[in-house]
Design goal:
Elements: E1 2-8, H1 14-25, E2 29-35, H2 43-54, E3 62-66, E4 77-82, E5 85-90, H3 96-102, E6 106-109, H4 112-115, H5 124-137, E7 148-149, E8 160-161, E9 165-173, E10 179-181, E11 190-193, E12 196-200, E13 212-216, E14 222-226, H6 231-235, E15 242-248
Parallel strand pairs: 1-2, 1-3, 3-5, 12-13
Antiparallel strand pairs: 4-5, 4-6, 6-7, 8-9, 9-10, 9-15, 10-14, 11-12, 11-15, 13-14
Helix pairs in contact: 1-5, 2-3
Length: 252
C-alpha cells in the first residue's frame, strides 16, 4: 500500500478536500498528516517540518506539501524524485531540503496541459498536487507529468561569527515555544543571549524549572528552550528573527 504524506498551512477543513481528490482516484493508499498548522505562507517553516519527518518514511512514499504564497502566479508546480521518495508541491524551495537529505533530487514540471488540469487559481493543493500525487500512487513516474527542470532551492542560511560570538536565525518555533535555529553544532563555549546565560544540556530535564537552555534537538538543529516554559515568549521571538549568541570563557 502506497503512503502519501500531507503537509500544508491549510488549517482545518481544506486538507479534507485534498484527501477527497486523492481517494476518488486511488483507494489503496495510506494518508498520513505531517502538519496542517504551518504558519500561513511560511515556506521555510514548512520546509523544516518536511525535512524533519520525510526521512522516517519508507522508500516509495509520496510527500504532498503545500505552503504556497505564489499560488496562481507563474511559479511552477513540480514533482521531485530523490532517494526512492517522491515530492509534490510548488516550485518555491519547499520540497528541496527534504529531497536533498534523501539523495540527489530530479525535478519535473507538472504540466497542466499534459494532464488536462484546469485548476482554481487559489487551490492548487486540491486541483493540481492531489491529482499528481494520485497519479504517482497509481504507478506513474514523475517524468510522465512533464519536462525535467531545475527547481528553485531554499536555504536556511548559515550561522556566522561575530566579534561577540555567533549570529544565527530562528527557522522554526514549535508548539512548546522552543526556538529552533539554523545551527547544527553547539557553541564551543558558554553562551549568553540577551544577557541571559543559556545552560548547555543534552536533555531539558538537566535544566531547572523555567531555566533557559540550549541543546541539539532530535531534528539535529540547535534550539533555545526554557524548561517547562516557552523560549519564544520569554525572549519575544518568532521564526525568521535573527539572534546573536554571545560567547564567554566563564562558567557559572
Amino acid at each position: 500500500m502506497t503512503i502519501i504524506t500531507l503537509l500544508s498551512d491549510f488549517g482545518s477543513f481544506y486538507p479534507a478536500a485534498v484527501k477527497g481528490v486523492i481517494l476518488s482516484r486511488v483507494r489503496d493508499v495510506t494518508l498520513v498528516d505531517i502538519a496542517h498548522d504551518i504558519a500561513p505562507q511560511d515556506v521555510k517553516a514548512g520546509a523544516f517540518a518536511l525535512l524533519s519527518t520525510a526521512m522516517y518514511f519508507p522508500s516509495g512514499t509520496i510527500h504532498l506539501a503545500v505552503v504556497d504564497p505564489g499560488v496562481g502566479s507563474e511559479r511552477l508546480s513540480i514533482a521531485v524524485e530523490s532517494g526512492g521518495h517522491f515530492f509534490v508541491g510548488p516550485d518555491n524551495g519547499l520540497l528541496i531540503p527534504a529531497a536533498e537529505s534523501l539523495g540527489k533530487p530530479r525535478a519535473y514540471e507538472i504540466s497542466l496541459k499534459l494532464l488536462g488540469l484546469r485548476p482554481s487559481p487559489t487551490f492548487h493543493g486540491r486541483d493540481v498536487f492531489a491529482p499528481a500525487a494520485a497519479l504517482l500512487a497509481q504507478g506513474r513516474h514523475p517524468q510522465d507529468l512533464g519536462p525535467e527542470i531545475r527547481p528553485k532551492c531554499l536555504s536556511f542560511g548559515a550561522p556566522r561569527r561575530t566579534k561577540k560570538g555567533i549570529e544565527a536565525a530562528v527557522i522554526y518555533v514549535d508548539r512548546f515555544g522552543n526556538l529552533i535555529t539554523n545551527m547544527r553544532n553547539p557553541p564551543p563555549r558558554q553562551v549568553r543571549f540577551k544577557g541571559i546565560r543559556l545552560k548547555a544540556v543534552e536533555t531539558y530535564s538537566q535544566a531547572k524549572r523555567i531555566e533557559p537552555l540550549i541543546t541539539v534537538g532530535s531534528h539535529g538543529f540547535l534550539e533555545i528552550a526554557v524548561n517547562k516554559g516557552s523560549a519564544a515568549e520569554a525572549f519575544g521571538l518568532k521564526a525568521g528573527d535573527r539572534i546573536e549568541l554571545e560567547e564567554s570563557d566563564c562558567s557559572e
